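Below is how a single chain appears once it has passed through the pipeline. First comes the sequence as given, then the structure the pipeline wrote out for it. We keep one example in the README because the format questions we get most often are answered faster by looking than by reading.
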Amino acid sequence: MIDLRNEGGIAVITLRHGKASALDIELCEALAARFDALLSAEAHAIVITGNGGIFSAGVDLLQLSAGGADYVRKFMPALDRAFNAVFFHPKPVVAAINGHAAAGGCVLACCADHRVMARGKGRIGVTELLVGVPFPPLAFEIMRFAVPEWELPTLLFGGATYDTEAALQRGLIDEATDVEALLPQAIAAAQKLAALSPPAFAMTKMQLRQGAAARLAHAAETEKVATDIWAAPDTIGRVRDYVARTLKKA
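Resulting structure:
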């Protein structure tokens, strides 16, 4: 499900959960546990990547549509824990985006401090509103932090996905590279950040995310509203319709 290896002091995490590393309860819990364990590990920084031509296809809509409201109410806290463990991790985190990163997969990539994407291997973007679900507070704050303010409405309301060059222009990624150079370039970026003073880096990272953390501390009601919308019969119906129109035809 999640492979871990050490490359010169850099922990390289590879998602290998089915064909698309879709985010379900099992993967979210494993991801949170892996990042929590790395808090006390000797690794100086972390690179997260996917398998094959997909970084992560986002939330597992097949499981969600089949499980309905009961599944949603178990899944949402697991998703929040996973995003929280990556976004607020004190060590440098670099995303090596090897292919498609859609919806929650894009949010996961945007949790990283630096994002490198392979050219011609996939598209990236947040398609939540096209599916019919809102952004939970943490996912919204991650996107607000990661991309330029003036791009946010277009990215969120439009629900489009972008190729590597367009993603670079819109600020969804920081670097574009050839697929053969993706992992070495991501590891080099991680090593550069790891060379900084770890306490100074961790404090600066905390300061950069301080606004997001402060807003999340008062977001309990928004979290409840978002979960209620995700679990509503109309939303489940929209998800099932989206699955029927897109995923099952793919």
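The first helix runs from residue 25 to 37.

See the next section for the split statistics.
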